Amino acid sequence: MGDVENYMRRAMELALLGQGHVSPNPMVGCVIVKEDRIIGEGWHQKHGDAHAEVNAIHSVADKSQLQGADLYVNLEPCAHHGKTPPCADLIAQYPFSKVYFSNIDPNPLVAGKGAEKIFAAGIKVYQGILEKEGQKLNRRFFSRHEKKRPFIILKWAETADGFIAHSNYDSKWISGELSRKLVHQWRSQEDAVFVGTNTVLFDNPQLNVRDWSGRDPIRMFIDKQLQVPQGAHVFDKSQPTVCFNFIKQKVENQVEYVKLDPHDDLSEVILNNMQERGVMSVLVEGGTQLIQSLIEKGLWDEARVFKSPTAFGEGIRAPQLQHAVLQSQEMIEQDQLNIFTRNE
Fold first, then answer.
1. Which of 209, 275, 323, 325 is most buried, by the most CB atoms less than 10 A from its CB?
2. What pLDDT, in 10s, does the model give residues 68-115?
3. Taking the domain 148-342, which CATH number applies?
4. What is the rounded CA–CA span in Å between residue 94 and residue 3?
5. Can you give the pTM of this predicted structure?
6. Is the CATH number 3.40.50.300 carried by domain 2-143?
């Protein structure tokens, strides 16, 4: 299995190149191997463009080389017409010997049908290669189809003594410059960034990727009574913006106001709204009240917490994680970055 797993790891490396560009599609990479040599590679580069398998097959100039070749792809080839034709049909047209993939596609339009089409064409099919790694790679996509909600990433910076802001809500700057740049990279990788009222009122964040190269996420924030002044950065018309509130439902100055019912479970309604928009992942950046409410409802998948050497002595306490498993720990200059996942 050594070579098989190595070729699959290469497919996953290629898949990652699509991060931040393919949502709401999954990240997919494909490798074509003939006589222990890679003869073709491809990945899904942009939503609406050709899929990984198509790009890999097209990368092989001499199609006679595909006779008896093996194809490796980290997700089951699609079996339905979306923005592009089914990849399973294309694969079945060529004389491949074997097709290996990591995960069955959770999309009910595929869910085993792709593998069936390929098998019916006389090609051997092997699934479950590096299955856990494949699940982690496309955890956002799996959350959308299995949990029926976006993949939720919580992020905050806290002081050495456990505060997220001063008593007057001022939080600049707990983490260092490199940590803040890393957050801009994270924003470019997720579909939306989501904050509460106090974060917008007191931090006046731009919630964009100005310190990184990439796509700006959809800005989403809660402002129940429409307290945020029109001069705030969130109203600068620079990127799609959604304001969840109790007062109006309309699009105004390129901001979409979504009216909520105060009697509803706001978290559930907001997450459903995100799901309907095709938001596959959301980075929740504050504040404590919003993050803590999501933690207590079990509505989170990953938490990225910067621990700064700075101490405040008093202020607003940082959120307290529940059912958390520490996955990694590293130093970003003077800040310690701890990444947790939720233990379900």
1. 209
2. 999 999 999 988 777 778 899 999 999 999 999 999 999 877 788 899
3. 3.40.430.10
4. 23
5. 0.93
6. no
